[in-house]
Design goal:
Distance between the termini: 27 Å
CATH topology of the domain at 63-208: Rossmann fold
Order of helices and strands: HEHEHEHEHEHHHE
Number of helices: 8
Protein name: Diacetyl reductase [(R)-acetoin forming] 2
Largest sheet: 4 strands, parallel
Structural class: alpha/beta
CATH architecture of the domain at 63-208: 3-Layer(aba) Sandwich
């Protein structure tokens, strides 16, 4: 995951525990004030339980880990399905939960994103279920549904394509605003949903896609 969301929270004065399976990404955050880092594989239940014991109390939980499987349902083997569902559908109860979904979900059908879109539609359903089940306990749960965002992950997938230049043009051309979103723009929405300013917001899929779904 990109570092911008972690830094955005820290700039607002939050004490952040940033987790990732990518150690080099975490090293970029080491010197940033207000951020602690932990190496974590979110598919490993034991590692998650150990971190929960260490942290004790979490005010805001952001489930951002994700994996993009390319292709239709015919391209999806069982192991691809299992891995995508495991990474893209994490659940943990807390005061304020923000899940990462996607416009490629129940919001919009996107070609060659079958298992990815299925998992992200499930994240939206999970978000709404948690929100309604725990609203009377003061727990809020929302999810963010970005469009195409210019992240290192996207750039890696573009470079891995047969024609990177054409792949990038295709990504940009489908955006109504004629550009990709930025990680900073998504980070601002994370901060809003974590703040008291959004205290009356729960159970929502918050779309931030430059009009792609229109």
């Amino acid at each position: 995951m990109d570092c911008f969301a972690f830094k955005a929270f820290a700039k607002e004065g939050a004490q952040v525990i940033a987790t990732d399976i990518n150690e080099s990404k975490l090293q970029e955050l080491q010197a940033f004030p207000g951020i602690q880092v932990r190496l974590l594989d979110v598919t490993n239940k034991g590692q998650i339980e150990n971190l929960a014991k260490e942290v004790k109390k979490i005010d805001v939980l952001c489930n951002i880990a994700g994996y993009v499987h390319p292709g239709t349902i015919l391209d999806c083997e069982e192991k691809d399905w299992d891995f995508t569902m495991t990474v893209n559908m994490l659940e943990q109860k807390s005061g304020n939960i923000i899940n990462m979904a996607s416009v490629a979900s129940s919001v919009k059908g996107v070609a060659n994103r079958c298992v990815y879109s299925t998992s992200k539609a499930a994240v939206i359903g999970l978000t709404k279920s948690i929100a309604v089940d725990f609203v009377d306990q003061g727990i809020r749960c929302n999810c963010i549904c970005p469009g195409t965002v210019d992240t290192p992950s996207l750039r890696e997938r573009i470079q891995a394509s047969p024609n990177p230049e054409q792949a990038l043009k295709g990504m940009v051309s489908r955006q109504k605003m004629g550009r990709l979103g930025t990680p900073e723009e998504i980070s601002h929405l994370f901060v809003y949903l974590a703040s008291d300013e959004s205290a009356y917001v729960t159970g929502n899929e918050c779309i931030i896609d430059g009009g792609w779904n229109l």
